[in-house]
Amino acid sequence: MRIASFNINGVKARLPRLLEWLEERRPTVACLQEVKSQDEGFPYEEFEKLGYQAIWHGQKGFNGVAILADGVKPVEAQRTLPGDPTDEHARYIEADVGGVRVACIYLPNGNPVPGPKFDYKLAWMERLRARMRELWALEIPVAVVGDFNVIPQDKDVWSPRAMASDALMQPESRDAYARILGDGWTDALDALNPRGGLWTFWDYQAGAWQRDHGFRIDHMLLSPEAADRMTAAGIDKEYRGREKASDHVPVWVELAG
């Protein structure tokens, strides 16, 4: 079972690349972030042509998340992140697929620092941790995947100095991520690539892709029941170099059974 995550940076703008990736890699589950489409405009018919069924939580112009599954309909379990009834951002969706609970997240960026956007980011991370504790208590295979907008350690960025003032690398952001891991979740990419140097994002500006000036902010966190089944994890780097690509690459984990 291959669970993948892809910040697509506009599902309509990148649709040819997304369909290409689905056909070539054929993940069992594909979680999308930054769909940037209202619910009624989500191109689910295009995925159905490839054999994928989908659920999604859209929002006009920005945010938006979706879960696609090969040959089966994801069974929706949660559409928003609990803890703040006033939060209308489409950043969270959760479903059961093939005996695994999959949560797809698009965590707030948080820039500029300091400010209300950073405060929102940290509050969102605390809400996420609370939800993940509820999922943990189910004692089932769980994968919480997506764009976390956190660079966990210096080994996860091409230049710590260049990103030092960014919300992605602030001590508060890193500490909040570390607290989640401290609850017993496994960072799949880090577990199998402990040396670091594995980027999932390259900015469109300043030739970042050509110079390999990237960093890792797309993560796959596994409960013990899922981590015990992990056989491989990695990124599909080549898709960043294709025409009209997203600034993120797909990340994935394979579970046995």
Brief account:
The chain is an alpha+beta fold. It has one domain: Deoxyribonuclease I, Chain A.
Task: Note down, in words, how this protein is organized.
- By secondary structure, the chain is α+β, with helices and mostly antiparallel strands.
- The protein has one domain: Endonuclease/exonuclease/phosphatase (Deoxyribonuclease I, Chain A), CATH 3.60.10.
- The protein is 25% helix and 26% strand.
- The strands form three sheets. The protein has a six-stranded mixed β-sheet with strand order 3-4-2-1-14-13. Strands 5-6-7-8-12-9 form a six-stranded mixed β-sheet. A two-stranded antiparallel sheet has the order 10-11.
- Helix 1 links the parallel strand 1 and strand 2.
- Helix 3 packs parallel to helix 4.
- The radius of gyration is 17 Å and the shape is globular.
- The N and C termini lie close together (7 Å).
- The mean pLDDT is 98.
- This is Exodeoxyribonuclease III.
- InterPro entries: AP_endonuc_1 (IPR004808), Endo/exonu/phosph_ase_sf (IPR036691), Endo/exonuclease/phosphatase (IPR005135), ExoIII-like (IPR037493).
- It comes from Tsuneonella deserti.
What is the topology?
Blueprint: E1 2-7, H1 15-25, E2 29-33, H2 44-49, E3 52-57, E4 65-70, E5 75-78, E6 92-97, E7 100-106, H3 116-137, E8 142-147, H4 171-182, E9 186-187, H5 188-192, E10 201-202, H6 208-211, E11 214-215, E12 218-222, H7 224-227, E13 230-235, E14 251-255
Parallel strand pairs: 1-2, 7-8
Antiparallel strand pairs: 1-14, 2-4, 3-4, 5-6, 6-7, 8-12, 9-12, 10-11, 13-14
